[in-house]
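Dear colleague,

Following up on Tuesday's group meeting, I ran the structure prediction for the four-component complex that the binding team flagged. I've pasted the input sequences exactly as they went in, so you can double-check that nothing got truncated or mislabelled along the way. The structure tokens for the whole assembly follow below. Feel free to forward this to whoever is handling the docking comparison.

Inputs:
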Amino acid sequence: MFKKILVSEDIDSISFGLVSILQKNYPSEIRTTKYCDDALLKIKAALHEGKPYDLLITDLSFKDDYRDVKLSSGEELIEAAKSEQPGLKIIVYSIDDKPYRIKNLFDKHKINAFVAKGRDSSTEIIEAMDIVHDTDTIYTSPQLSHIARDMAILEIDEDDIILLKYLSDGRTQPEISELLKNAGKASSSTSSIEKRINKLKIYFKANNAIHLISTVKDMGII
Amino acid sequence: MFKKILVSEDIDSISFGLVSILQKNYPSEIRTTKYCDDALLKIKAALHEGKPYDLLITDLSFKDDYRDVKLSSGEELIEAAKSEQPGLKIIVYSIDDKPYRIKNLFDKHKINAFVAKGRDSSTEIIEAMDIVHDTDTIYTSPQLSHIARDMAILEIDEDDIILLKYLSDGRTQPEISELLKNAGKASSSTSSIEKRINKLKIYFKANNAIHLISTVKDMGII
DNA sequence: CATTAGTTTACGGAAACCCGTAAGGCTATC
DNA sequence: GATAGCCTTACGGGTTTCCGTAAACTAATG
């Protein structure tokens, strides 16, 4: 059983509800933070005291407000936390159920579970905690199981993402070519860019570039 | 003070947290639902019994799942609820802080308050409830006050929205022209469509159509 | 009815995008 | 080092979009 849990979630009602759910099920020590920076500080401090957290439950998106923050997203917090305390188990609790982001979380950030905010998230959180604690198996909410399938065929890379972002920023293809050349990227000719866009249009079944950007934005890829 | 409150929110942890906050402050009768359809049924039933709800607190977006639903969004629930019980006070509690949607909620759906899910939403909910109960003033979360300003200059109409949706669906301008003609819309020539797109590009400071669609999607207009 | 103002449509050239084909370059293998 | 396969780049012509200008239409006014 987890002894010391940190909850990182900015929306007060969610944080409140989440803590209630946890307390109802486990006699753990639970701390909450509303900012990623604070979460990292707490993790560091606990590590220093020799009483480290053994589980981090975090959201992905945090609202901007008046405060200047170093870590502005769950991804950044996870990366920072892992480099401080590599063994820390991490459960992401988020509304964002876009295949690409979830895939990234498991592949790059080595999170242990992804629980989607939803009608049954309280039971899923508990399930996830049990599995993550006892085994090295990863956990995802049942309704996201289809994503495992999507993930397999999701073969778009960093460069694709960059290109899509340039397009969505209103750059023309010659402009993008220049930008990529200056960034020292390979295959930066207008021709290659055309080809890449074409590949993406086929992949996402888009009629034209506008449709493509619309689609990838809906999917949360950019 | 509100005597009978209905909370319509699909994510269990939020619903749980919200109810705790309400109970801590008011001795009201509180019911919760995870589906808009159920919320409407509860409102109808209470009305029939002669013990109607006097406040509805609802989210805007609800997750799809296995259940077939008639009302799939908060907007639809609000419209249905208002037609059943015009006097019902409504507070929207949502993460979606896009000017256009909020403007619509106040203008078309005559909601009484909009509280943004955030770090201080528990106090804001209480504030909103006090104001909405005692007066006919509308309430919005303080951090959204800038939206009142944005709202004033937000002069895009239904036809603009339709056009933007067609564009984001990958239609060409001649195709859109045909579609609008068939729908019996005025100013449906390719020329007029060009002109309208151009107006929108200027308005949203977009370099090209891709950029335009990207921008309006970010703003939650479509 | 003539004039004016505002809106819608038409048109044409320039720019950007789309799409197929082909040439050039790199690597691996025999 | 010749060959084949793969990736990148180049090029050309067709389509779509972009943008300015002008014509046609509508409605209101004197």
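The CA atoms of residues 112 and 138 of chain A lie 5 Å apart.

Cheers,
M.
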